[in-house]
Write a structure and sequence with these properties.
Distance between the termini of chain A: 67 Å
Shape of chain A: globular
Oligomer: homodimer
Chain lengths: 495, 495
Amino acid sequence: MGDKVEFTSRVNDLYKFSAIQGHLGWDQETMMPAKGAKARGDILAWLAAQRHSKLTDSEFGELITRLEGQESDDYFTANVREMRRKYDEAVKLPVEFVSEFTKARSQALIAWQEARKDNDFAKFSPHLQKMVDLTRKRIEYLGCEYTPYDVLLDEYEIGMTVNDYDPLFAGLKERLVPLLNKIMASDVVIPKLPAEMSFPVDAQEQFCQKVSHAMGFDFGAGRMDRSTHPFCAGIWPGDTRFTTRFDEKDPFSCLYAVMHESGHGLYEQGLPADYNYSPVGMAVSLGVHESQSRFWENQIGRTASFWKVAMPWFKEQFPDCPDWDSETLDLIANEVKPDFIRVEADEITYNLHIMVRYEIEKMIFNDGLKVEDIPSTWNTMMEEWFGIIVPDDSMGCLQDIHWSMGAFGYFPTYTLGNLYAAQLLQTMASQLGDIDQIISSGDWSPMLDWMRTNVHDKGSVMSPAELIEAATGSAPSPEPFLRYVEEKYSKLYKL
Amino acid sequence: MGDKVEFTSRVNDLYKFSAIQGHLGWDQETMMPAKGAKARGDILAWLAAQRHSKLTDSEFGELITRLEGQESDDYFTANVREMRRKYDEAVKLPVEFVSEFTKARSQALIAWQEARKDNDFAKFSPHLQKMVDLTRKRIEYLGCEYTPYDVLLDEYEIGMTVNDYDPLFAGLKERLVPLLNKIMASDVVIPKLPAEMSFPVDAQEQFCQKVSHAMGFDFGAGRMDRSTHPFCAGIWPGDTRFTTRFDEKDPFSCLYAVMHESGHGLYEQGLPADYNYSPVGMAVSLGVHESQSRFWENQIGRTASFWKVAMPWFKEQFPDCPDWDSETLDLIANEVKPDFIRVEADEITYNLHIMVRYEIEKMIFNDGLKVEDIPSTWNTMMEEWFGIIVPDDSMGCLQDIHWSMGAFGYFPTYTLGNLYAAQLLQTMASQLGDIDQIISSGDWSPMLDWMRTNVHDKGSVMSPAELIEAATGSAPSPEPFLRYVEEKYSKLYKL
């Protein structure tokens, strides 16, 4: 077998292990019975160990070294480069550590679900402590060039550090907080859902599937299920699964979760099929992934033009709902209100939610914040920045799944997603013309096609920053996002 | 690492691969979107190849040889014996063949589902041909001592051959056919479901879950889902999943499928946990597995005593159903009628259904019956033995999933299950006292406990025949089954 063929075969093996892990992860949160948790943890840990031992095989290391000296096309070169990064990282982590981490993560996930349901941080606390301890150990193994937290940030969006995020967040805060204050002072009244009204789950499901289908999500190659925390898993070719949750009192919560996860799903369904089971065939970064979900959720879904199209579908499912017009629904969908839950936050406060998590993670890993002090730290920040008192930890530091999965350093990529989305929209509009007109037409395929060509098709052949620059002509910048929110909300709230 | 530790670790690895295959198989039939089929086939084939290459590792073979000379406890010895059998078989099968077989099976399964839905044998025919060809090749690789079909029969129930089954089936036929004729001539009238009545799926689901729960199935360690063909998968510790299907016109079809699959599920949930991921921790054979499902489905579920307990649950879900008493429901549940569908057949005709499949399989592999001639051969037999004309292949040779999975030689184990179940019931009654009284009490745990002690707990430490003999004091025999049906149906039909 030639080096290139062997490399591809070994890489495919590794990514097949990952795909199975992804599938079992999906199942764990949607289907698995509670008593299956122990075995699930064991199996996931075993798979991680199998994958790890294949990844760290020294023959594979030598193969990568040989291929680094050879001429190849861009895609192959990108695969070699990415596998070098993964190989170097993996050889630093002992196989027992990887297995322990995976096992602890499975248990922490279950504990988090229970703690959140019972609103009992103490149930989660020892598991969170374990995840923090293991993550500190991980940082030690990987080696720390700048600050410990930087090691984690770099893992989720290559090249990003505290030195990049600190000024970025400061800059956002500088313009978002005054905007928020102006909105809070506005006398525009947001209509409320009638308190006595209920929106049956089945009808919500029908409505949301219709919207997702209109976005272009292929249900012949995917599913929509339920889980505590909505997520999307692009498991394997032809099989992309996302989840949502239902609140009978609020159909918008589910709708925007579905648009969000469908946005992720469209990216997965659009990745270059010729490079399945290899890095270059995967999404380029969490930030870019989030740009796709936020694009559909906010920039398409939270507009009057969207509601012109979706209103008949909504009324079909909820014939008793008040006779709102699309402008009213647009207002409801864009209500700005400092509140507790990140995934239901408006576009203005959302990035402040991310900052809370970013600051706390930074404190944990760079300044030794104790796990037991997380709830009070969280609640203090929420009071200071949002002016609201967190009533219990389920509405506070227990709301997100990420820490139970040991995904520290992940949150800031959500903000990057918001920035990328705005920058992509700006360029798309300059090329396709009036976006509102496209949305109103009900045929959203030109926008999906544009994303397919400029983002999805590219897989991971470039870095995230290169991809954004290639698509938009400029390096990533917060400016388009800030202009977008300032313009949109000034109009909505008559500022 | 000592030999024993290494052996256990290698065996566990192999069984973890199998568990993942089992899980993906479950998902394929319950959850997978249609376009995921190609990748699913690839992944299952890849897993089979991974497992096969680990199983056939010559170092593993040497390890087995070394352990065969050592003293060990019964359970360890059983594991070594069983792995020797699997190793010897596997080294005869080239890895490419295993991979091709698995891939073809995935595709055949999809094709079968479509062909059955569309009632179009031609859609399935090329895939079935492929499965037959690959199975012939498999027989060649494994080596044929007696007839080719014997190689397949032995795989599903060790030690059973055409020479065992031919007289067994002849003996059953000799006493079942006269019994059937007498029943057909009886003037007992079986009440019919009112044609206009409909039984909503959700209510059926509730009712069936209640019954399954009363049997002792632990829904905290399992699930019930839907699939074209009901099945049960004991995937991994704490996670046993079965499926059913719903017919709004006939609630009994679903009920008895659920009792059947729950019986399988109880066996899986009762296997010895200390021997997870090794042969001795698995069900001992398909025949014994089927004895557990048939016990609950027929010997418990199809009795007036069962309906005394279940009737209030039934009426709770279907308040508009006729005011039947438990004797009437018992009659409905035990209607004997030569009909088309095996899984819905009564206890008398069931084994004749098996004989049709047995004879056709024997013809395919021992006498060169052509795939294209299967439908006509099937239909001719149904006419001769059952006196009914098969209206289309969905009601005929397309009804079962087995051949699409290449599971030739599997069907006869169903009949063994019926025989074992009757033999176990006879002994259970001699030890626990009046079984009808236990069923009527609504507390069915003494029966489950008896099965736990005498069957489930044993795993695969003995051969199927040894296990039946240890549990009942006699070698497996058709006599208890024949006596059971003759007595039961003489009473029901006043013969």
